[in-house]
Amino acid sequence: xxxxxxxxxxxxxxxxxxxxxxxxxxxxxxxxxxxxxxxxxxxxxxxxxxxxxxxxxxxxxxxxxxxxxxxxxxxxxxxxxxxxxxxxxxxxxxxxxxxxxxxxxxxxxxxxx
Length: 113
Fold this sequence. Notes:
Helix content is 83%, strand content 0%. By secondary structure, the protein is an all-alpha fold.
């Protein structure tokens, strides 16, 4: 069997506070047997696993959202580029039309003079 528990250095204030909280709670709740403590640890392990799975799922959703957003931005940029090309083509056609109308006007003026 693989060793699951190590000797822990709990000299930091944060760990000592947590340790004392657990010792007080176990004493106050009459958790003295290994079986009682193991049951609590099993419950907490399961809860931690659930939270890890939830966190991983949220990360996947976040990655998926980011990918969808990036794809949408790429489509928008592509459409804007196409729109810009169409606007340039429209301006060019307008210019050609203006030139043709001016030439027609000059020809008309020439014919009647």
